[in-house]
Amino acid sequence: MLAGKYTSCQIAFCMTLPPALLQFLGSLAAILMLAAIAWRLRLGPEPRLDDENAARQAADEAVSGFKPVEIGLDREGRGALLSDAGGRILLLRPHGSRFAGRLLSDQAVAWIEEDALIVDTAEKRYGSARLELADASAWMQAIVAIKRG
Fold first, then answer.
1. Do 82 and 99 form a contact (C-beta atoms < 8 A)?
2. Maximum pairwise Cα distance, the chain
3. Band of the pLDDT at 9, cuts 50, 70, 90?
4. Which domain holds residue 106?
5. Pairing, β 116-120 against β 128-131
6. Which of 32, 83, 117, 146 has the lowest tally of Cβ within 10 angstroms?
7. Residue 97 and residue 44 in contact, taking contact as beta carbons nearer than 8 Å
8. Distances (CA, A) of 11 to 4, 17, 24, 71
9. Same domain, 33 and 63
10. What's the mean per-residue pLDDT of the chain?
């Protein structure tokens, strides 16, 4: 049955390969396949916001048309708070290999803990974020102002 599909030279070559080499080649093929799947699913390291332009782009991806006038970047680039001309505040935090954003409602709360601003969106599925901002108290006051409406 094999002889019809493969030449005797091909069969002899496969039979002379050491089992360790066959195992190595099989493992290599599996690793490359898993890497391709991870690349396709866009899995990878946690994203970073390196500058205000990156925060603007992530904000537009999260809320189309959001035009920030003030941006507070986390010192490590793990998130940001952005406000627009209408007083809306957008929180960006990592979600997989991208940033997820939420406009803060009057249910959101914020407090300062160990030189970091903790923002709880009051959404169970989004949760809270810990941001180390240069002007944490100003952002906390802005979030409190949302409650006052």
1. no
2. 84
3. low
4. 52-148
5. antiparallel
6. 32
7. yes
8. 11, 10, 19, 66
9. no
10. 86
Residue 89 C-alpha from the chain's centroid = 20
**Are both 85 and 59 inside the same structural domain?**
yes
Query: What is the side-by-side order of every strand in the sheet holding 128-131?
Result: 109-113, 116-120, 128-131
pLDDT digits (tens, 9 = 90+) for 15-63: 677 888 888 888 999 999 998 887 787 676 778 999 999 999 999 999 9
pTM of the model: 0.70
- The full 3-state SS of 26-90, as one line of letters, equals HHHHHHHHHHHHHHHCCCCCCCCCCCHHHHHHHHHHHCCCCCEEEEEECCCCCCEEEEECCCCEE
Query: By the 8 A CB rule, do 122 and 105 touch?
Result: yes
Intra-chain end-to-end CA distance of the chain, in Å: 80
Residue 74 has what pLDDT? 95
- Note whether 69 and 31 are within 8 A (CB): no
What does residue 78 show for φ and ψ, rounded to 5 degrees? -85, 5
Clarify whether residues 87 and 27 are in a common domain. Answer: no
Write down the residue that tokens 């396709």 correspond to. Answer: 40
